[in-house]
Write a structure and sequence with these properties.
The structure is a single chain. Helices cover 31% and strands 22% of the residues. The protein is an alpha+beta fold. The strands form 14 sheets. Strands 10-11-12-13-58 form a five-stranded antiparallel β-sheet, with no helix packed on it. A five-stranded mixed β-sheet has the order 42-43-44-45-49, with helices on one face. A hairpin with a 4-residue loop joins strand 2 and strand 3.
């Protein structure tokens, strides 16, 4: 599915998490999946993934047997073992034999059906692939770190443990231990068997082993075993004798001028690998990522050789975890994985690195190509690194550099400088912003201005004040703008990042005179020419500002959720009409395209509110995260989403072109290749960056109904914790665990799959965990055995139910009273000597040493000595509370409090007695107690203690910092004045939190309390339902926010109108001043809906309601007269109205309202509203005697239904508006015809009259066709009837001719016979025919090339062309094959001529089209058989047919 990709980083701290098959397929466990990589000596390619584990993959192994090399097995920390088919990447079987994390796994090299696994509790399980049987053993109660099956004996398995023990077991004898190999004193990281059977002599020194080197004895024939440990040694063992042969100590290699400290073992993982066919050579990892080849036949420094010494930069730079080897094309290759997140391939003959595959250890948050350095791709990854990939490199297809200096957290945003090559800005999860020069080794420049939260967006743009002042004096021409999670956009000076960045909100407020709180910003995008900037906000609003003053041009209120991404269409090599396109994506799944060209070129005096999009791209099922315009195509966009797919769109056609589904999980970043128009790059949650072709995707649209990929796992995110809690100390009903080889269970594998939560961690680290000591396993066995004896009931002794005796304060001296009787009697003599003698006995110091208990019976100094000894005992045992009480008893109150503060043992009792030590000590103690309570999450209690110190503001800050806003506000209002600034700040902070959590009503209350009525109204409106919008509008009106109130009321009224609740819509608008024009619009819409209700296939909503004046008219008034009467009676609007109520003033106001742009898939309800808007302008123009405006708006009102295929509705609308078929019905009372002065209005009048005559002509034809026509309706309600005439008029000719010629035409049809329109329509038809022939030619070419043609595509070429145009076999081009008469060049030339002809047509002909002239001619000639039609009209129709329709079959009868 994809060409190149960077896979996820291999998992760390696993003994065998990668393996390679004999065919060169490398499997690597990364996160929860296994990546399959095709490997050769020259390159590598990611083939795919094995997906199915619910937790980290801890082991992986191929089956190395002929015929089964495609089989593999993997294990996970959730205890599962999965068998896979790597050819089709499918799961064969899953075993659930382990109850804890599996830490080691190996497929036996001898038995093709045996797989052995071990877990952290010490249980070894044998899985039989062919039968599905499972056998479990418990050789040692220790944590297993690694295991390895012998390549010579199927039953011999070596197991390495965490404490340094190695055990050889025989699985054929129920896991019996054959040898215990002792010598290592730390974790066993790896085990490797010699590839050759037998134990030939190896060089060793006496100090290296317990004995001397030996050869085979003849009686026992074993083989060598190598082990690598954290104790920095590699040991070679004899499996026959069970003893060590040789010890290899890792060399301390100087690196970067400094030696490795041998005492540092934390960052060491010692993996060993014994290559096949090399019995005397062993490869191991070393301290800092080096690989060492050991020659076991040599001694001293000659024994080891470093790999990759021929040139710099070949070695890993951090520790290596796994190695595996394979022989391909007579070259022995070694594959290594490391903590440096690189996979390397080595040639074992030359010891050189052949290639390096970089991997990614986190989410791919950002992905962007350099606009200057062609093919230079930057990746921002969640593993705290930036990758810069030269994707056009011919020598190394994965030529990648990593940058990590100065980065301490996830890289979440990237932006290349638009002009300076190699300058890359980055933003991180901790709010840091910096700039890298990728062509130097210098650390990045870091901005001194940090964001408080994650940086989401970076953008280069022209400087704005105050940074733009003095640009001519050497200031940079570009500033760096950063947007972060706290909703602030900062402007940084790239030449002086040490200076303070400026917040652009201050400039926006000053320029636009804004007093209310600005919505938090979430994204920004500068137009490529730098003239305007679009800023997305948390409330879903998009504001467009003009640079450099940042004057607000317009506000796009289409989204109602947080804006995630904004992108301007690139200006490069694209038509000017596309330069104003802005794409926006939010947390809802729809992508909106906005055309802002007119606003940018002609900035309005006051900001414009845009509520309708230019294009709507629907298909994604989850929130949009990123998008990118194609630099190669016009208006082509690619978007990525949380639904896990990437979608390519044709924006102008609103068409989905290609859908990519190669990722697992949601996508976060995307960019188009700057060199290949068919290549897109994407990155996401699955830790991969992938390159894919648009044209090679199987799907064109996202999957229907697909939600978040991990939704099922998230619903059970606590399953792992629950699973751990279910584990009991006993073994349940299973057989008791036995030591050293006893069989535990034998069962069939579990088929059920238990879901586990998705941790969504960005860092893969060690999956091992600490385990209880061996004594716990003994306890478990005893408990399990005891649990089985249920024959007799057990009654507890009543003495055992007594309350537990409290711990002694003087345990050491108390224990002295439990010695033998003789010693206790001697104590009495010693005590008597001390009390009655001036000189104590020799060596006797009461309260100390052996006489510590005598301190209780002597003087105070002896007691203090005894207390000191008791305190040491309590401290060693961790009983600090007892130490505190001892110090209290001795009078050292300050010391007792100091110790309690240091150990976190303060309590209410100590606080109550602290004043005895003085005010300073008490206050210091209370402050320490507050910190302790905060660590214990007792914030309310901590705040109360701060009040006791009169630290009111500190108590408020404490409550606020832990989001206890309700309590903090109550405290402020109870203790501070009402005008305290902190109160408003608390209300605002609490409102922000409530708003993010979706509690909009509560957030609005907070904003109202803080005096931010504007924000209160906006937050209520975010719910976007009718009741919320109505409440928000009412609130804004009460608060004096008139503009906002009108905007919200209008949105609410439109929603009510869409539900046909006209009464409520008018009530909402009536409660707000200044909305009269919108009330008139809804009045017209209501009348139009009621009058056309019989022809609308729209079912009214349950809440639908209409006014009495909208009921059907009994006086048969014209439409405009009826609207006029309703306006005058209900709204007081007439020709005599003055001021803002005058029709001319209302018309000017309505002209300022944005006219909607036609888009695809507009519902009929919306078409009604759009058409009624133009009809409202028509009536106002009629009342104002403005005939030019009236005619253009009237034409537009009718055109809405015609353009969207609602033919019957359009017919009924024309009947309603023009009952007599004459458009002059809209003329003024003083004249009989319309006074049209402009060319456009005249053209509109002609087009409109032609449409009316067209409907009348069809009505006449249908009525004359009698009953036969009724049986076969010529068209449906949603299509034009023109297709019947051009193809099938001849079929109805007989029945029409049978009627008598009677009657005459009572309307003018000459307007339908327009020569200019016929020429234009003929050119358009010819262009469609040429395009169809071009498509047929491409299909034939693909068929010749062996391309696959989908079912149903046959016949869409030449045959379809012939059928559509009605050509006969003897028509155009007869006698020649299409291949002979046409070529690509000729068709292209013909297309160019037609385009030129169409371009030369008058603009009025193209802007105001008329019905198909050829169709009207045919219809007129047919009607002339039954009605009286003048000869001149018939001749004119025939002439037009000869010139423009001679090729049609239906025309032959009339022109022959």
């Amino acid at each position: 599915m994809h060409q190149r990709s960077l896979p996820a980083s291999p998992n760390w701290y696993c003994s065998r998490c990668s393996d390679i098959s004999s065919s060169g397929l490398l499997g690597v466990g990364a996160k929860n999946n296994v990546f399959l990589i095709d490997v050769s000596a020259s390159s590598c390619r990611v083939r795919g993934e094995l997906v199915g584990h619910k937790d980290f993959v801890s082991g992986f192994s191929f089956c190395h047997h002929p015929g089964q090399s495609h089989l593999c097995v993997s294990s996970s920390t959730d205890g599962s073992v999965c068998f896979w088919d790597s050819d089709n990447r499918s799961l064969i079987r899953e075993d659930k034999a382990h109850q804890t994390s599996v830490t080691a796994l190996h497929w036996s090299p001898v038995d093709k059906n045996l797989v052995v696994s071990g877990d952290e509790k010490g249980i070894v399980v044998c899985h039989w692939f062919n039968t599905g049987d499972i056998a479990s053993f418990f050789p040692e109660p220790r944590t297993i770190f690694c295991l390895s099956c012998s390549p010579h004996t199927w039953s011999s398995v070596a197991v390495g443990y965490k404490d340094g023990m190695i055990v050889l077991i025989d699985v054929s004898k129920k896991g019996e231990v054959t040898h215990r190999l002792r010598g290592h004193d730390d974790e066993i990281h790896s085990l490797a068997w010699s590839p050759v059977i037998g134990e030939e002599a190896l060089y060793s020194r006496p100090e290296d082993s317990e004995g001397i080197t030996w050869g085979p004895t003849g009686e026992e024939k074993g083989c060598y075993l190598a082990s690598g440990s954290k104790d920095q040694t590699v040991r070679i063992w004899s499996s026959a004798k069970g003893k060590g042969v040789t010890t290899l100590k890792l060399p301390f290699i100087k690196k970067r001028g400094s030696a490795v400290d041998p005492g540092v073992k934390e960052r060491l993982w010692l993996h060993v690998h014994w290559p096949k066919g090399r019995p005397t050579q062993l490869v191991s990892s070393c301290f800092s990522g080096e690989l060492v080849m050991w020659d076991l036949t040599r001694a001293g420094k000659q024994r080891w050789t470093l790999l990759g010494t021929s040139s710099e930069g070949q070695n890993h730079n951090r520790i290596v975890f796994n190695m595996s080897s394979v022989c391909l094309q007579d070259r022995e290759l070694l594959i290594s994985t490391s903590m440096d997140r690189e996979i390397k391939c080595w040639d074992l003959s030359s010891l050189d690195c052949l290639w390096t595959l970089p991997t990614l250890g986190g989410f791919v948050y950002a992905l962007t190509f350099s606009p200057v350095g062609v093919g230079c791709l930057a990746l921002g990854v969640g593993d705290n690194m930036i990758r810069v990939w030269n994707t056009l490199s011919t020598q190394n297809q994965y030529d990648t550099r990593s940058f990590w200096q100065g980065i301490k957290s996830k890289v979440t945003a990237l932006a290349w400088h638009p002009k300076r090559e190699g300058s890359l800005a980055f933003g991180t999860d901790d709010g840091k912003v910096g700039i890298y020069d990728v062509f130097s080794n210098k650390p990045p420049q870091i901005s001194s201005s940090y964001h408080r939260k994650t940086v989401y967006t970076l953008a280069w743009g022209p400087p704005v004040p105050p940074m733009s002042f003095g640009v001519a004096e050497g200031k940079p021409s570009y500033s760096l703008y950063t947007c972060a999670g706290e909703g602030v956009i900062l402007q940084h000076d790239p030449s002086k990042l040490s200076g303070e960045a400026s917040d652009i909100d201050r400039l926006i407020r000053d320029t636009n005179n804004i007093k209310h709180k600005l919505s938090p910003h979430t994204d920004l995008s500068w137009k490529p020419d730098g003239k305007v900037v679009a800023i997305g906000n948390e409330d879903g609003c998009i504001d467009v500002y003009e640079a450099p003053s940042l004057k607000l041009l317009c506000s796009i209120q289409q989204h109602h959720k947080i804006i995630n991404t904004l992108r301007w269409h690139p200006d490069l090599s694209s038509p000017p009409e596309l330069h104003g396109l802005l794409a926006s994506g939010s947390s809802n799944a729809i992508v909106f395209i906005h055309d802002l060209r007119s606003i940018i070129e002609n900035p309005p005096e006051s900001p414009v509110v845009i509520t309708e999009p230019y294009r709507r791209l629907s298909g994604h099922t989850a929130k949009i995260t990123s998008m990118a315009w194609s630099p190669h195509h016009e208006a082509r966009l690619v978007t990525v989403s949380y639904d896990g797919t990437a979608q390519v769109w044709d924006v102008l056609q609103e068409e989905a072109l290609s859908n990519y589904r190669g990722h697992i999980g949601y996508l976060l970043s995307v960019d188009w290749s700057p060199t290949d128009p068919d290549v897109v790059w994407t990155g996401g949650k699955d830790f991969t960056a992938q390159e894919w072709n648009v044209s090679k995707q199987e799907f064109t649209k996202p999957p229907k109904g697909k939600k978040l990929i991990d939704l099922k796992e998230k619903t059970k995110s606590n399953s792992k914790q629950k699973k751990k809690n279910k584990k009991t100390s006993g073994a349940g009903g299973a057989a008791a665990l036995e030591m050293n080889g006893a069989l535990i269970t034998s069962q069939r594998p579990s088929t059920g799959q238990q879901l586990s939560g998705d941790d969504e961690e960005d860092e893969i680290s060690s999956t091992s965990s600490s385990l209880p000591p061996a004594e716990m396993f003994e306890t478990q066995r005893k408990t399990s055995t005891a649990a089985k004896s249920k024959d007799k009931p057990v009654f507890l002794d009543s003495n055992l139910q007594k309350k537990k005796k409290p711990r002694s304060m003087l345990p050491v001296s108390t224990s002295m009273d439990h010695r033998p009787k003789e010693e206790l009697l001697q104590d009495c003599i010693t005590l008597a000597s001390v009390r009655h003698s001036d000189v104590p006995p020799a060596g006797c110091i009461p309260g100390q040493g052996e006489h510590i208990h005598l301190g209780l019976f002597c003087d105070r100094q002896s007691l203090y000595r005894m207390f000191e000894a008791e305190e040491e005992s309590h401290i060693e045992a961790g009983h600090y509370d007892s130490v505190v009480y001892l110090r209290l008893w001795s009078g050292d109150l300050e010391g007792a409090l100091q110790l309690a503060m240091e150990k976190g043992e303060l309590n209410d009792h100590l606080i109550s007695i602290a004043p005895m030590a003085g005010f300073t000590v008490w206050s210091r103690t209370v402050e320490a107690f507050v910190k302790q309570l905060c660590l214990q999450e007792q914030y309310l209690k901590a705040a109360s203690h701060l009040l006791s110190l009169h630290k009111l503001y500190e108590a408020i800050d404490l409550l606020r910092s832990h989001k206890l806003y309700r309590e903090a506000i109550a405290l402020v209002k109870a203790r501070l004045p009402a005008d305290e600034p902190v109160l408003k700040e608390l209300y605002t902070c609490w409102a922000s939190v409530l708003e993010k959590d979706g509690h909009f009503s509560a957030a609005a209350k907070c904003y109202l309390a803080a005096g931010a009525s504007f924000d209160a109204a906006k937050v209520i409106a975010r719910k976007n339902d009718i009741s919320s919008l109505r409440t928000a509008a009412h609130l804004a009106r009460i608060s004096g926010e008139v503009a906002l109130a009108q905007s919200l009321a209008l949105r609410c009224a439109k929603d009510l109108a869409a539900d046909q609740d006209w009464v409520s819509a008018q009530e909402v608008l009536a409660s707000h001043n200044g909305l009269m024009i919108h009330r008139l619009h809804l009045c017209v819409a209501e009348l139009l809906t009621v009058l056309l209700s019989d022809f609308l296939a729209v079912s009214p909503a349950p809440c639908a309601s209409t006014h009495p004046w909208a009921s059907p008219d009994e006086h048969h008034l014209s439409f405009q007269d009826r609207v006029k009467d309703v306006w005058e009676e209900q709204f007081g609007v007439s020709q005599t109205s003055a001021g803002s109520q005058h029709p001319e003033a209302l018309l000017q106001e309505l002209k300022s309202v944005e006219s909607p742009t036609p888009t695809a898939n507009v519902p009929l309800k919306q078409v009604l509203l759009y058409s009624s808007l133009h009809l409202t302008r028509v009536v106002l123009s009629w009342l104002s005697d403005d005939d030019d405006t009236l005619m253009k708006e009237l034409w537009q009102a009718v055109a809405w239904f015609r353009d969207f295929g609602h033919f019957y509705v359009s017919t009924e609308l024309c009947r309603l508006l023009f009952p007599q078929g004459d458009i002059n019905v809209f003329c003024s009372k003083q004249s009989n015809s319309l006074r049209l002065t402009g060319e456009e209005s005249k053209a509109a009048a002609g087009s409109l009259q032609a449409s009316v005559s067209y409907h009348l002509l069809y009505k006449l034809w249908w009525s004359s066709s009698s009953s036969s026509t009724q049986n076969s309706s010529p068209c449906s309600a949603d299509s034009s009837p023109g297709g019947e005439l051009t193809n099938g008029v001849s079929e109805s000719e007989e029945r029409v001719s049978s009627t008598r010629r009677s009657g005459e035409l009572d309307f003018d049809v000459s307007v339908l016979l327009s020569e200019p329109h016929a020429v234009c329509q003929a050119a358009q038809r010819s262009m469609r025919e040429v395009q169809e022939r071009l498509s047929a030619m491409v299909l034939r070419h693909n068929r010749a090339q062996g391309a696959q043609i989908q079912p149903g595509e046959e016949g869409t070429g030449a045959s379809k062309e012939s059928a559509d145009t009605g050509e006969t076999p003897g028509s155009k081009g007869a006698g020649k094959r299409p291949e002979e008469q046409e070529s690509l060049l000729s068709l292209s030339s013909e297309m160019s001529e037609l385009q030129k002809q169409l371009a030369d047509s008058p603009n009025t002909v193209k802007t105001y089209p008329r019905p198909e002239v050829v169709e009207c001619c045919l219809l007129l000639l047919h009607i002339s058989r039954s009605l009286s039609v003048s000869e001149s009209l018939q001749q004119e129709a025939k002439d037009l047919l000869c010139r423009h329709g001679a090729h049609l079959k239906a025309s032959q009868r009339f022109i022959s």
